[in-house]
Amino acid sequence: MSLPVYASTGQRIWYYSFRVICALIFAFLIIPILVIIPLSFNAQDFFTFTPEMLRLDPAGFSTKHYQDFFTNQDWQRPLKNSFIIAPLATIISVSLGTLAAVGLSQSHVPFRGTIMAILISPMIVPLIISATGMFFFYSKIGFFMEDTLGMSKGLVGYIKVILAHAALGIPFVIITVTATLVGFDRSLTRAAANLGASPGRTFFKVQMPLILPGVISGGLFAFITSFDEVVVVLFVGSAAQKTLPWQMFTGLREQISPTILAVATVLVAISIVLLTTVELLRRRSERLRGMTPG
Amino acid sequence: MSDASGPVLAADGTPLKRSLARALRAQKIRAFLLIAPLLIFILVTFIFPIGEMLFRSVENKIVSETLPQTVIELQEWDFKSGEAPDEPVFKALAEDLQIAIEAKKHTKLGSRLNYEQTGIASLFRKSGRKISKWELSEITDFRAEFEDLDKKWLNADIWRTIQAYSNPVTAGYFLASVDRENTPDGIQRVPEDERIYIKLFVRTIIMSLVITGSCILLGYPIAWLLANLPMRTANVLMILVLLPFWTSLLVRTSAWKVLLQNQGVINETLVWLGIIADDGRLALINNATGTIIAMTHILLPFMILPLYSVMKTIPPSYLRAAKSLGATNWTAFWRVYFPQSVPGIGAGSILVFILAIGYYITPELVGGTKGVFISNRIAYHISSSLNWGLAAALGAILLVLVLALYWLYDRIVGIDNVKLG
Question: Is B183 helix (H, G, I), strand (E, B) or coil?
Fold first, then answer.
């Protein structure tokens, strides 16, 4: 990859211009995310750099948008809602998804292709169509739970959104867990069974620790899917279930306040944490399964 | 070895064949029991709701349910006569309407028929108020009474619409979503200024193609660089691809909103550098340009990752071999390397295209009116105009398109080979 000593002038020019092109594309990928971080410390209510900020004058910076985010109820409620809905949806996706992935990885599964296609479908169907379908379905379910079962309106609202998000997260769990199971050594479970462990014990003591990295990264994907989801929650939820992305969406549409940039910065920090975790898990999983670390 | 001709027996004395079959069956049942909870969950809360929603695109029970007698009486009537139907139809309509008004259903019917012929909604609403007060047994000439209410009741077109939509199943929504309508002279295109959906579908497809194209253009060099750099450097640079992939969609969309707006960072910088005049700021947002830039950025990782995993498998020695045999750099790349990377381009393109074609949030926020997709129209019909049948028909067309591409993706790449992160 490095430039050989005998390279001609033309090759040198191409070598360096290719590097420059790549650098520009990387800049295109990353700058939009980085640019919001300094902007979120803007002392003015503008979405752009003020002259004070460009001179690096301390008066041009402030943390007032962060204060607004952490004190304003318009943001705190959605933040709380997001942290209620996403973990619960993730738990449902992960538990059902892992079981199904283990089932799918058995050697003789009838209609494997069809089942796989159905389970992956929430990822393929455009969100707007899923949202519309769920809108009609969950409004009926909602009436049933409120009127017949006498549940409170708030609780029903959360159940609806959590179930809807769980369905959206499932494909990610299925994909990551099946990928981990590909390299799984079946003789380990047979050995455990041979030594007298019950199927449940075999699963939790032998299989689960080995596929755990895949399960966790699937869970993180499911979490971020729910945490980042707007369309379905807009259609299925009501104002009481407003999540952080929903509040950002309305905020962006109506241009309310630059607090959005502070929220965005916090979310970028969260995604850095998630990214690091997933990368570490992936490497660990590959090491465990004896593959070369990527 | 005297009994070698008999069946092989398992330890408990049953024939081995049967014993194995039983074990296999038990295994299948166990696998299925593990899959069942999730399968049922997805079928009930995802697949059936979508199926039911799509059924709304052809469902049309409202006319035959609200005006049951009228629909029966109207069967005889031939719209080609150009005359309004006879007395019995009007009598049936009055009876049906009184029941409907009681149940407050007539305005709903009016707005349903209004999708097909404007003006019917107000006709139903205005007449409804008076008809509810009629004493049916005292009326002798219903036709004249209706004429008294509104001359429009004698208009054959109104009756034709009611007759045309008295079937419990209709193709009307699908016709509307391809800018056609059912007129007395058969299926025809709607007037020029009302043709929006085909244009919108074409625009969605063209813009998705442009986005896919720019993703290939930007993603290919990056994937090549990552695949050919030493592992350590590549891993560091990979973070620059994965971070946008993991960052919230809303965050990236708001970043582009900040960057692209008229007073935004890009325009300010260009003005400051003196490249453009202060009054000549580029219109980068609320149009197709905004949507294309922002969506290329959002979908680029989906192109780079499959391309990278394909390029990783191409041995670098092939390029060296081609060059040592006398190929120029370009020939070596174009004749040796590129053909082997085509599967990656295919996988990435279909993935990006599938995702792009159904996008809603980004076009809604940065697309203005010129940069919106078909999804935005579906959302509009669901939440604002409440024309759910038309939304369902548009959704069905979009879904068929996406599923066809998904099938293609499955054939080329295999859904089992999808990798994340």
Answer: strand
